[in-house]
Amino acid sequence: MSLRLALPLATLLLSPLTQAQSVYGERLEGFDYDFPVKTFSFDSQRQALEMAYLDVAPSGKPNGRTLVLLHGKNFCAGTWTQSIQVLSAAGYRIVAPDQIGFCKSSKPAHYQYSFQQLAANTCALLDHLGIARATLIGHSTGGMLATRYALLYPEATEQLVLVNPIGLEDWKALGVPYRSIDQWYARELKTSADGIRDYERSTYYAGQWSPDYDRWVDMLAGLNNGPGKERVAWNSALIYDMIYSQPVVYEFARLRMPTLLLIGQRDTTAIGKDAAPAELKAQLGRYPELGKAAARRIPQATLVEFEDLGHAPQMQAPERFHQALLQGLSTRKAPSAPPKP
């Protein structure tokens, strides 16, 4: 009997060799979210763009508040599914955009990416929807964007929630080697399902894995290996350069709205960490220290730590995470006065 025939049926069914790899379009065509996707058309940098977004009405008794969910670098609006279900049931209206360059939104051939530009795009979307004031919830790279949005539009930001945000340290200033956009592009072209899974297991989920996570691996791998993979990789490279070169950590003291920090303590995320020398690598992405330091810098910060969770606590332990989030949303502090000139 051959080795292949001797393997258990479950092993054969789960083996990458027996599965056809999913392939999705440049705008994630072929991959469905759990909520209807809408499109906001606008002009930016002399070109017509489309931002995909979810707009989910409260399924419970409406409380009059809107939450804007901002995804991370390797996430999409669709990966907020569990949070949208819980928060909608609690009475919140939910708006979750795919930022330009990501997921189901436009992938421009040329675009000057900045957190200011993405914040302005998000503000334009909210204006289009008639939303004058909202709570921003940003995860990972979305935390950097939410911070920039809150700094640009403080009167429109009711509350700020940062879920394992990156950008709690300045990797460039710490000595992480520079990668050119061409180098990032070459790196992104090598994206594979196995590489995504290995990275997410160690960083996002603290060494654990659930079959539920495979859907999101399939989403990213299919997007990065589809017919638009060169355009996807190029936009990804531009976005990595934005993340590396545009720190927000120095401006935390300017945040005047109540801010909730939800931090998985076993997170080790740091952009460019893989290229850093060993002695520097060991000093990067220390979230138990970074979360506390951010809480000290932000005037009205409340810090909630999840001792055993990684970079994506909302997906790794959704019940615990959402309990803490709902409690934090319901116990807002009064806004502080701006500093005197």
Can you summarize this structure?
With 341 residues, this protein is an alpha/beta fold. It contains 14 helices and 8 strands. The protein has an 8-stranded mixed beta sheet with strand order 1-2-4-3-5-6-7-8, sandwiched between helices.
Describe this structure in words.
The protein is an alpha/beta fold and 341 residues long. The chain has one domain: Rossmann fold (3-Layer(aba) Sandwich). The protein is built from 14 helices and 8 strands. The chain has an 8-stranded mixed beta sheet, sandwiched between helices. A hairpin with a 4-residue loop joins strand 1 and strand 2. The longest helix has 17 residues, at 229-245. The termini are far apart. Keywords: Hydrolase, Signal. One of its GO terms (molecular function) is hydrolase activity.
> From N to C, what is the helix and strand string?
HHEEEHEHEHEHHHHHEHHEHH
Query: How is the CATH topology named?
Result: Rossmann fold
Which superfamily, in CATH terms, is the homologous superfamily? Alpha/Beta hydrolase fold, catalytic domain
Number of E-type strands: 8
User: How would you classify the helix and strand content by structural class?
Assistant: alpha/beta
Largest sheet: 8 strands, mixed
Radius of gyration over alpha carbons?
Answer: 20 Å
For the biggest β-sheet, the strand order reads 1-2-4-3-5-6-7-8
Overall number of domains: 1
> Which CATH class applies here?
Alpha Beta
Q: What CATH architecture label applies?
A: 3-Layer(aba) Sandwich
- State the helicity in percent bands: 25-40%
What is the averaged pLDDT score? 92
Low-pLDDT residue spans? 1-19, 334-341
Q: Beta-sheet strand percentage?
A: 5-15%
Quickly count the helices: 14
Which word captures the global form? globular
Terminal-residue CA separation: 81 Å
